[in-house]
Design a protein that fits this description.
This protein has 186 residues and is α+β, with helices and mostly antiparallel strands. The protein has helices spanning 7-20, 27-34, 38-52, 77-84, 93-105, 110-117, 122-130, 153-158, 170-179; strands at 59-64, 67-72, 108-109, 134-139, 147-151. It folds into 2 domains: 7-81, Winged helix-like DNA-binding domain superfamily/Winged helix DNA-binding domain (Arc Repressor Mutant, subunit A), CATH 1.10.10.10; 93-179, Arc Repressor Mutant, subunit A (Orthogonal Bundle). It has 9 helices and 5 strands. The strands form 2 sheets. Strands 3-5-4 form a 3-stranded antiparallel β-sheet. A two-stranded antiparallel sheet has the order 1-2. Helix 1 (7-20) crosses helix 3 and helix 2 (27-34) packs across helix 3 (38-52). The longest helix has 15 residues, at 38-52.
C-alpha cells in the first residue's frame, strides 16, 4: 500500500527530486521513489507548474522529453548566457537541414538523408551524434544493413518538446512562410 503524504510535504519532496535530477524526471519515477500514488504526484506537479507561472519567478516547471524539469524563464536567456559567458548555440544550415530530415522521417538511414539533401551528410551526421541530438536506432533489414538514425532525448530537451508530436507540421511551416512577406530589399 502506498503512503499518503500531506500536500505541503509532498510538494517539497517532488520539487527537490525534480531539481536534483540531471534529466527530465517522469511522474511514475517520482511516485515510485516517494512510494505514493502517481495521481498525487501529478497534482503536485500541476501546483509547481502554476507556481512558476506567477510573475517575478525565475524558473518554471516544464514537461519535456517525457518528464518534468525546472528551467529558467525564456525571457531570462540572455542574462543566463552572460553569466555562463556562452554564445548562443548556432546550427549550420547543413546541420539544421539534416536534423529536420531525421526528426520528421525517422527512422532513416544516412543514404536516405543524403538522397533528400542531395549532398554527402556523413560529417553532419557524425557531429549530430557527438552532440547527442540523434542516436543510432539499429540497422535496417536490407542489403548492407545500413545504420538507422532517430532523434534523442537530448533533442527533445534542447527544443523544449514533450515528444515528437510537438514538432510543427508542414502546414504550420507554410503558413509561417506566407506571413513573412519577401521584399526586394533583401
Amino acid at each position: 500500500m502506498k503512503k499518503l503524504l500531506d500536500t505541503n510535504n509532498l510538494k517539497g519532496l517532488v520539487e527537490a527530486l525534480v531539481f536534483a535530477a540531471d534529466a527530465p524526471l517522469k511522474a511514475e519515477r517520482i511516485a515510485e521513489v516517494l512510494e505514493v500514488e502517481k495521481a498525487q504526484v501529478l497534482a503536485v506537479l500541476k501546483m509547481l507548474r502554476d507556481d512558476g507561472g506567477k510573475e517575478g519567478r525565475g524558473i518554471v516547471l516544464c514537461e519535456v522529453a517525457g518528464g518534468y524539469q525546472f528551467r529558467t524563464r525564456p525571457e531570462h536567456r540572455e542574462w543566463i548566457r552572460r553569466f555562463h559567458h556562452q554564445r548562443p548555440f548556432r546550427f549550420s544550415r547543413a546541420a539544421l537541414e539534416t536534423l529536420a530530415i531525421i526528426a520528421y522521417r525517422q527512422p532513416i538511414t544516412r543514404a536516405e538523408v543524403e538522397h533528400l539533401r542531395g549532398v554527402d551528410s556523413g560529417g553532419v551526421v557524425k557531429t549530430l551524434l557527438e552532440k547527442r541530438l540523434i542516436r543510432i536506432l539499429g540497422k535496417k533489414d536490407i542489403a548492407g544493413r545500413p545504420i538507422i538514425y532517430g532523434t534523442s532525448r537530448e533533442f527533445l530537451e534542447l527544443f523544449g518538446l514533450r515528444d515528437l508530436s510537438g514538432l510543427p507540421t508542414l502546414r504550420e511551416f507554410s503558413d509561417l512562410a506566407e506571413e513573412e512577406p519577401v521584399t526586394g530589399d533583401e
